[in-house]
Amino acid sequence: MHKKSVLDTLQLIEIPKISDPDGRGNLSVIEKEVLPYAIKRVYYLYDVPSDSSRGGHAHIELQQFLIALSGSFDVVLDDGEERRTFTLNRPNKGLLIPNGIWRELENFSAGAVCLSLVSDIYKEEDYLRSYDGFKAYLKTTS
Ligand code: TYD
Questions:
Q1: What confidence score (pLDDT) does residue 84 get?
Q2: How many angstroms is it from 20 CA to the middle of ligand 1?
Q3: Global pTM?
Q4: CA separation (Å) from 94 to 49, 52, 61, 142?
Q5: Distances (CA, A) of 73 to 14, 77, 121, 122
Q6: From ligand 1's centre to the CA of 37, what distance in Å?
Q7: Catalytic (active-site) positions
Q8: For ligand 1, atom 17, which residue shows the shortest CA distance?
Q9: Whether the Cβ atoms of residue 44 and residue 74 lie closer than 8 Å to each other
Q10: Cβ neighbourhood burial of 7 (10 Å; 0-12, 13-18, 19+)
């Protein structure tokens, strides 16, 4: 039988958008209950060659929210058994990645900027950087 994966529950989250009534463009804001955690760090990826991939790791505790501020890229998520690909290509849609999920970011368009809003400061010990290590870690938590 198909075991329900956390991946089945993930979907792009709409970020509130304020469109200027006089046609001066849009403004999106993340506050209050948009994210289930307090943002402790913000970083962004840019100038990523289209044939490069980023990520290639999981986090033990860290939760992460990704937004394509400009351009587009794909986020491949893997729970150790299944994979799902999400395309981010709008500045008012984001993807919340829970802890314990392997991620790879690929197919960056020219000029793509990936904003990352995360739940903790940088801690190398929170990373699972090998896929085999990730699978072994999952066994210890199931
Ligand atoms: P990494 O998280 O592996 O990047 P990505 O998943 O986007 O490919 O980080 C790349 C390098 O940058 C690595 O040497 C750690 C360093 N780094 C920091 O020093 N601080 C940070 O907040 C982040 C995200 C990375």
A1: 97
A2: 36
A3: 0.95
A4: 22, 21, 19, 28
A5: 17, 13, 24, 23
A6: 21
A7: 57
A8: 122
A9: no
A10: middle
